[in-house]
Amino acid sequence: MSARRSLVWLGLTPEPEQELPAAVAALRARPHRHPPTALVAAERRRVQRLVLRGTQRGWLRYLGEVTDLVVEAAAASAPTDPRPALVAGEVVLDHHRMLIGLPGRGYDRTAAQRRDLEGALARLRSRSRGALRSEDWSTV
Asked: Global pTM?
């Protein structure tokens, strides 16, 4: 590892490392209700590889892909379970907001993603509240 390689970004990865693999696998497996175990495992390996051997730039590219998946889920006309997109969107948005405290231009580079995630999360939350109202919870 190069002495010039900054590792400060790794302080922001614990929650995304834990939360994103299952949520992203579910988004990639849409419209299936539950992602295959192999897809979750592959996503977990990808995140682990990025964190252990990657760079901040590569990590932010991955989070950009996740942002795109969340935005697509929010824009989809077919009703699907909004929970994976909500989890992924909230985790990435929190991560991107914390970039303001790190050196470098990461916070500025993710401004458009933060804006897109905020809009997508508002739509997903609205959809989620509607789904909760329309379901019969007396059978739960």
From this structure: 0.85
